[in-house]
Design goal:
The protein is an alpha+beta fold and about 80 residues long. It contains two helices and five strands. Strand 4 and strand 5 form a beta hairpin. The two termini are about 15 Å apart.
Length: about 80
């Protein structure tokens, strides 16, 4: 859970909260992606820009078989995961 939350993020967005379409959208990549990813996306026509605030995440996972709980918290923000 923690690895998934802390991993670099990619988002495709369009102004005004509208649905992204290829000719009117931007692609945000957080630091941490391999350099080849940037080049491949640019070659495919993505307009790459520096990311702004992509929000924060806390999460809890429950294993259906064992009932064990695992949590993760976004290192980009304050917060923590709580479960009981």
């Amino acid at each position: 859970m923690q690895l998934a939350i802390a991993s670099p993020r990619m988002a495709i967005n369009r102004g005004g909260g509208r649905t992204p379409i290829p000719e009117d959208s931007v692609t945000y990549l957080e630091a941490g992606f391999p350099p080849g990813v940037y080049a491949e996306l640019a070659d495919r026509g993505h307009h790459l820009v520096e990311p702004g605030n992509m929000g924060g995440v806390q999460g809890v996972y429950r294993d259906a078989e064992t009932g064990a709980l695992a949590g993760g918290s976004d290192p980009r923000r304050d917060g923590h995961a709580i479960a009981w």
